[in-house]
């Protein structure tokens, strides 16, 4: 089976029994359950300590340089950042294999135990005022994160149902960003109050011990790939891991690239926040802290919104929403910060502003809103991508796929630092650099949606369906996680295909009227999503033969195919006669048949209900109830009369 075929059919298996336990009604309910709560606390502790240790080291070296080193604080900050990222390139490939080979809970406990030892090394560095020891501990925390990452992201599909993946990932990203912010703030407060090594050591070690204690309650997942052979070779294994991720399918690979691109943009924006707050906004350290806090809270809000907007499913239609918002808000940030800076310069004020003084000035809220919305749209962008990768990658390779993402993240973040350094050195300025990121983000988004049309198709589906309808789905579990099936719904409106795409966890190949397929502009979109044009034997026998051959090939490749058996939109809302083409498709390639009943579309603007187009839109109302009833799969030899009866029954449920 090819990588694209594998991508279409492969959905990650979960070690939980989805049929015996309904998905949590709210993502926050997961925090009180053992399968998620202890893991969440473990992640929070690790993210907090990562940030806490780095910020403590930088602050102490900056304000007590004579005790630690003759190096500048800026150089030490860059050294710390580089040493933290380096392990992701060196050890991610091995870490991914380790998490696939052994039970993920065991790997997590081992990493958390190592964190306690790393904090003891850092404590020795504070006692001895040794910069080399502090830098070594930061490098080791990078190793800790490199080994923890593949295990944590591949653990989620093992303990959560498909309906909980988006919510679980949203909580994880929310907690991570708030923990990083908390570690940065607490380090600043602690460094300002005391430099006593005892208190610094107690703080770091206590958080590490909390993470270790909570990891003991992380549930076992079993060994995903017990026969996987471990071999440590930095270059060969890293290249092999990247190749493995690339072969997982175009959707997965481009999702990994998109996640890394988010970290590219994030690295540029976050690295410029100190200069933005000091030089453009004329603020003191409290203004810089406020900007960081607003960005982190924005990411947290965006991450949590994903579950609500996706209706408890993995919805990659949110990714274009996130990318568009990122470009718009990043561009506006460049303009709003420049405008605020010009206004301050014109006023003649030379004093550094406190955060309260900053908020009193005109234009300050626009800058804050831009930064917050960059975070919000960043959360909407990244959370569905992580869930999509988890859903579409094979269980025995999930950790290795995540480790490939860690390598890509590191490469992109280093590239971001390099690009920023070059552009700033030639005099571009912070607003110009941020504007360059906005333009680049738009170009990268266009590339991704051009190469993986499923993202664009799901975006169109999500926008149309969720802006007009309130969708309720029953029986969605009858759509197979993998393997071929022929989906057979009633045909009520022009947006039936979009509705079905919006509720399906897998891509669907739609069989559609050849005349509609040729409509300008729409034709391009239909071709991108591999729709299959069909005509009647009377109108175009050659088109019919090609369509049947294309359907047969798609089903043999284990894809989902949808055909509207009535052959045309209903003229009166009732179910029409089924055409014999359905029977021909099943005779050529016998696969399970899934009947679907659509309710609530007949009075919509997109149906032929006897009203004029303007009249249909006038009578329509936002939030209209739409029900999609998915029936139990029927055998391939089901008589057309029985298949029609099944669809009819689902229409009246």
Description:
By secondary structure, this protein is mainly alpha-helical. It folds into three domains: 198 residues, MFS general substrate transporter like domains (Growth Hormone, Chain: A), CATH 1.20.1250; 203 residues, MFS general substrate transporter like domains (Growth Hormone, Chain: A), CATH 1.20.1250; 189 residues, Glycerol-3-phosphate (1)-acyltransferase (3-Layer(aba) Sandwich), CATH 3.40.1130.10. The chain is 66% helix and 6% strand. It contains 24 helices and seven strands. A seven-stranded mixed beta sheet has the order 1-7-6-2-5-3-4, sandwiched between helices. Helix 5 packs antiparallel against helix 6 and helix 12 runs antiparallel to helix 14. The two termini are 39 Å apart. The N terminus is likely disordered.
User: How many structural domains are formed by the residues?
Assistant: 3
- Sheet/helix structural class: mainly alpha
* Overall pLDDT: 86
Q: Mind telling me the CATH class of the largest domain?
A: Mainly Alpha
* Cα separation of the termini: 39 Å
Q: The CATH topology of the largest domain is what?
A: Growth Hormone, Chain: A
Radius of gyration: 27 Å
Largest sheet features: 7 strands, mixed
Proportion in helices: 55-70%
Structural shape? globular
CATH superfamily of the largest domain: MFS general substrate transporter like domains
As residue ranges, the low-confidence spans are 1-24
- The helix count comes to 24
Instruction: Report the count of strand segments.
Output: 7
Known CATH architecture of the largest domain? Up-down Bundle
Strand numbers in spatial order across the main sheet: 1-7-6-2-5-3-4
What percentage of the residues does DSSP assign to strands (E)? 5-15%
